[in-house]
Every structure is written in C-alpha cells, then in structure tokens.
Amino acid sequence: MAIFSQDALNPGVKKREVFGWAMYDFANSGYTTVVITAVYAAYFVGGIAQKAEWATFAWTLALSISYAIVMLTMPSIGALADMRAAKKRFLMVFTAGCVVSTAALAFTGPGTVTLAFILIVVSNTFYSYGETLTAAFLPELAKQEALGKVSGWGWSFGYFGGMLALGISLGYVIWAQGHGIPAEKFVAVTMIITAVIYGAASLVTFKLLQERAQPNPAALQTSGFKASLDQLKTTFAQAREYKDFMWLMLCAVFYQGGVMVAISIAAIYAEQVIGFKQQETMVLIFVLNLAAAGGAFAFGYFQDRVGHKFGLGITLVGWIATCIIAALTTTKGGFWYAAALAGVCMGSSQSAGRAMAGMFAPKAQLAEFYGLWGFATRLASIIGPLTYGAITWVTGGNQRIAIASTTLLFIAGLIVLTKIDVQRGQRAAASSA
After folding, report:
1. Inter-CA distances, 63 with 172, 290, 378, Å
2. Rounded Cα gap, residues 431 and 433, in angstroms
3. What is the pTM of this model?
4. Structural domain contains residue 214
C-alpha cells in the first residue's frame, strides 16, 4: 500500500484536500518554532527583560494568560462553529489575528516588556484558536482506523514549515551578526519572516480545505453565543457517556503540560543553563524539528498498528528519559541527546493525542469536542510552563530542579492513561451518531 494511501481517507475526500489541511500545520509551525521556542523566548528573557530574575516567570505568565483565555472560550467557540458550520471561516479570522500580532513583535526591543508581554498573549491566543480548529477537520478527512497516520502526515509535514521559517531566520541571523547588526534589529526581521510564511502558506489551506459540516437551524434561532454555551452545558452533562474522552482530557492535562515546558523553555534552558549561543540554539531547534517530523510521520503508522493507547504510553516514557537527561547533563553534547529524543517524542505524543481525541469525538460535535480537547491542552499549557517558571523563580534561577520536576507530569499522564478503554470510547462516540 502506498505511503499516502487513498484508502486512509473518508469517501469523497481527495488527497489534495488532505494536503491543504496539512498545509495549516506547515503554516503555523513557524510561529511555535521561531517565536515560542527558538528565537523570541530567549530574546524576551535575555534582551527585552535584561535577564531579570523574574524574566522566565514573566515569559511563562504571558503564555499562561493566553492559554487561560483559550481554555475558557474555545469550547464555546467550537460549539458555535459546529452550529454555524463555520470552522473554516473562524480559522481564517484567527489566522489573520496571529499573523498581524506576530509581525507586530518586530516593534519590541530592550525595555518594552509590557508591549512584548501583551503581543505574546494576543498572538498565542489566536495561534491556539487556529490550532484547535484545524484539528477538528481531521475526523472528517480520515477513516477511524487511519486517524493516527493521517494525523501524523499533518504533524510531520508541519515541522518542515517550522524548519523553513527557522532556516531562513537562521541564515539571516548569521548574516546580520557578521555585519554587526544588533539583536533587537535581526530578531525583528525574524518576526516578519515568520508572519509572512504563516500567512502565505495558510492560503493553500483556505483554497483546498472544504467545510463539510451542516448548520443546525434550530440552534441558530437563538443567540449564537448563548446557543453555544447551552450546547456546551449539555455536553458536560453528558460527560459520563464519553468517559474515555474525559480520561484522555485529564491525561492530556498532565503530559501536554510537560510537552509545553519543552516547547516554551528549550531555548531559554539551552542558553541560560547549558551555555548555547543564539545561533547554536537555532541549529539545535532546527534539528529537533527534523527529529519531530520523522517521529510524527513514522509514529502515525506505528500507533495505528500497535494501538493508540500503547503508542502514547511509549512516548511518555521517552519524555521522562528526556527530562532526566536534560536535568543531569552539563555539556552541549549531552543536551543534544536530550533534544533529539525530545524531538521524536514531541511529534509522536502530540500526533497520538490528536488522533485519539478524534476517535472519541461524536461526528456531529467535532469542533465542540475538539474545543474541549483544546480546554485540556491549554490548561496543561498553563500548569506546565507556569510551574516551571515559578520553581525557577523560587529557587533563585535553578532550572535543573525545574526540568527535573517536569518528569512528574509525564508520570501522572501515564497513570491516567491506564484508565482509558479505547474500544469503549469508540462505541460511545459511534452511538451518538
């Protein structure tokens, strides 16, 4: 069977549409790679906040505020998108918001902590909305038995978008440093590069991806936001029918918290603790993304073969090993091993979680259930990085203790994962059709 087989797709879905859907992962990966991970995070701490003791905590607080906004609003937005059959329209609006606010980061520099803080909150909020909505298209495109591999196609292809944005940015940074251009100038250009790639690549998604959902006329007779809240209350009231989806959400709260520590802290840890220089960090994150792309692609097939639950469990064990290596190593070479393992686990665990959520989500409520999934992952994104930042602040900047404590999140995720019954979750989702 071909690697990208038509047999993996639902009737009426063409490969070009899946390519369009995957292009959104390609488009938005530059934001997380350049802004959240490789460039702007370390620049915020070392350049804008001038390495103040509270700088890492301030960075994680900005991210946490954005995730709190998404956590509280995304389920209702998802329900409204389902009722209006407007996932694609909403996605376009959120994409525009993230592109504009990312470009605006070019106007920040040393001492502009408040402006940078606000723009990170705004851009990351819009990014998170878009990430959640694009995931809601997955069950419309892929068959139940192929959710893992199709999710893996998107995640793996997405990392190449991150590498494109980072690669161009890295080339420019090396050139700029060679010509004596200061960080506040070349970091600004990398923000523009990231915004342009995000906006341009997402146009392919909007051209090829179809909106297959149908509006709910009865629900639309009432106020849109009120109707979405009413539907959301109904969903929570029926939570017992979807107990495995709820267990998966709790599992995600723990393990995604650890994943978000890696995404938002990697560059800061590499430079502040291990001693990497900025362009070395960018090369490190580039290779990490390459490993993540391979991990997501290969693991998509692996999890469909061995089972999503078992596959996710393997990645969580890998994350525990990653944190231990990072906490103990004192050399750049040792940290490279941790980063490579983190890359493989990152793509695999995120792809596996998205696929399992699609298995447990009722067909008529995909955006709404992915809104609930977004609620869980954003709660995780608050707990993980904010706890890391707080531990760093309280311990006088000891990030080794903070990264070691992150293993507890992955251990908790493993424990909760044992509660999930995949077959029972699939039956519950199918019975609501």
Report:
1. 27, 25, 10
2. 6
3. 0.77
4. no
